[in-house]
Write a structure and sequence with these properties.
By secondary structure, the chain is α/β, with parallel strands linked by helices. Helices cover 39% and strands 25% of the residues. The two termini are 15 Å apart.
């Protein structure tokens, strides 16, 4: 079995289930987007939502993916940075609890967290205070971190530090790893399009994108975007939510159906699709089976609040494999 190491913003998600979209309007937050916020705005949003029930889980895009891989039975590790505080300890302990090897650096500054506002239709809007997580830098890395692994998975949210992300992929390639990237959010892609195109063409083997991210990168419809992205890397994956997904390698295309699901929260759906897909690759499954597994895991995660599934659900998924 291939071993996978992820790198991303080590964030703890604070999730609020909204009864309406008034909070989005109050803070001028585009529904479905990811906004970077400072510590003050992050606190103001939480204070505004004091009357709502909240749930706290260790999150971050790459962390969600890596945790999912471990819960499926894969061997996985995670590179990140947290503060020397309660939230940082919570993140490390949750990572260990999920069977992931934490490669976690510490900072004197507060740990990062993401306030997730879940609309009544399940769409999530994320307000991210990066805190210590964004202090992960190229100087923290060395090639030995990647020596025992076969795949590096990175989240698009890391593009706020071009030096970090390019150093990581260069080191991974020097150690013979495949590189996988999840494009993360359409507005992130729009802001860093030129850099992402360079990164994909030069270093990336596997690209995960939803339809909005694919359009932001290519300007094309999902099926056309699939062809454009596949010309830049080995494996392209374009997801269309409930409509399923496409996978392409060379000239071969697989259309993957979505499983029936009662959607209550889309938080982590794309991250967990990548979990299933990459776990399949680690077991050397064919790409149809990898896509089906991604669809299965992502279909299960939208039926719960937050990016974590209960052990019972993971057991059912593993039985179905």
């Amino acid at each position: 079995m291939k071993k996978i190491i992820g790198m991303g913003n080590a964030l703890t998600d604070v999730l609020f289930q909204l009864s309406d979209n008034q909070a989005l309007e109050h803070f001028c937050l585009p529904k479905g987007s990811m906004q970077l916020v400072d510590e003050n705005l992050s606190r103001d949003i939480k204070n505004y939502l004091q009357g709502y029930e909240k749930k706290m889980v260790a999150g971050g895009s790459a962390a969600n993916t890596i945790n999912g891989i471990s819960c499926l039975g894969g061997q996985a590790a995670l590179i990140g940075k947290v503060g020397e505080d309660e939230i940082g300890d919570f993140f490390v302990n949750d990572t260990l609890h999920n069977g992931v090897k934490p490669v976690i650096f510490r900072s004197k500054n507060p740990s990062g967290n993401c306030t997730v506002l879940i609309s009544p239709d399940g769409e999530r809007t994320m307000c991210t205070y990066l805190g210590a997580s964004c202090e992960l830098c190229a100087g923290d890395l060395n090639e030995n971190l990647f020596a025992d692994y076969d795949i590096l998975h990175i989240e698009g949210y890391l593009v706020q530090s071009h030096a970090l992300i390019e150093t990581a992929v260069r080191m991974a390639k020097a150690q013979g790893l495949l590189v996988s990237i999840d494009l993360a959010s359409y507005n992130v892609v729009e802001e860093h399009k030129d850099f992402l195109l360079h990164l994909i063409k030069e270093y990336v083997d596997i690209v995960f994108a939803n339809e909005e991210e694919a359009k932001a990168l290519t300007g094309a419809s999902p099926r056309e975007a699939l062809d454009i992205i596949a010309d830049m890397c080995e494996i392209a994956v374009v997801k269309e939510g409930a409509a399923g997904s496409y996978v392409k390698r060379n000239e071969e295309v697989w259309q993957i159906g979505a499983i029936p699901a009662q959607c209550v929260d889309t938080t982590g759906a794309g991250d967990l699709y990548a979990s299933g897909f990459l776990y399949g690759l680690s077991r050397e499954y064919d790409l149809q089976r990898c896509g089906n597994l991604g669809a299965l895991v992502s279909g299960k995660i939208v039926e719960v609040v937050g990016p974590k599934l209960p052990v019972e659900t993971w057991n059912l998924i593993k039985e179905s494999i």
